[in-house]
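Problem 12. The chain below contains 306 residues. Write out its predicted structure in token notation.
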Amino acid sequence: MAPIGNIGNLKLAPDKDTAGRKLSFNVWLINTDQVDDRQLFPTPNINRELGTIPLLPGELMHRFQAIDDTLKEYTKGERGELTTEMTNSLELVMGGDGRQLYDFVEQHAGDKFIIIYQNSEETERYIAGSYRKPMILRNTVRKRDREATAITFLFKNRVISLPKIYVGSIINQAPQNVPVDSLVLNLVRGKEQYLIPENTAIRTLVSVTGITADMYGRYIELIGSSTTYPTKIVSGYEFILIDNVPWYSTHGRSIIFRILDSNTLVEVPGTRFFDSTIWESSDNIVYDTDEGGIVDDNYGDGIVHD
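Solution.
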């Protein structure tokens, strides 16, 4: 089976290939083979928000664009003799008949996917399926007639679990690098992930810049890569953290924030990620000279332990 990366991004088909319809839905199909199954798949918080899907090194999320008004999602549940059976379905139509579409149909029929989808005019994204209960490509219909030239894809799974809100990152490019020893987090339009490096001493972020009005309500993810001198984030006016628990940019950790306004980032509950495989055979402690204690990464909680 060819990896989905060989197919790449399926771009917007021109109107002449789609009977004049406008394309307005973005869909990211993530093959379960792309997921790093050593990591815990994120779990939704009380607001049904789900964090970033952990991908294997080098894997990217590839975007598909569906014809306007063709993306349909529906759920059918029925009580049987012993339990309730529920089937989730997601259907979309891709316009055109190019090589990429044909390759995808031939190479991924029956494959298992996690699906992220978004109306192009909205900021909110949704996610259907998970690593253990993926959406399976059950049916494809190709047509070329006077009505349209397109392929219909139908994905299904059977589980009592409806779509969640995806607040994680769309991994389609390298993270934005934060300068060493930076005290200011400068956001860049179009960048969702920010990689915080090893510093020359422990630093604390004090402000955030670069936010414009069109970024309000969007999400960013900070990724740690420090082993000795991390960057610390404490709760205040600029960064609002759950229960005021600080976060450290040690290697293997990440956190997701929602952009509230031009100066403020709010932590999304349940999105602190800790890569347990990095610390399996190491003590890995980080000395925090500001607090007079140490951060023991084996706790995985970001709290200073004396």
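Discussion. Residues 4-166 form one domain. Students who got a different answer should revisit the alignment rule from Section 12.3.
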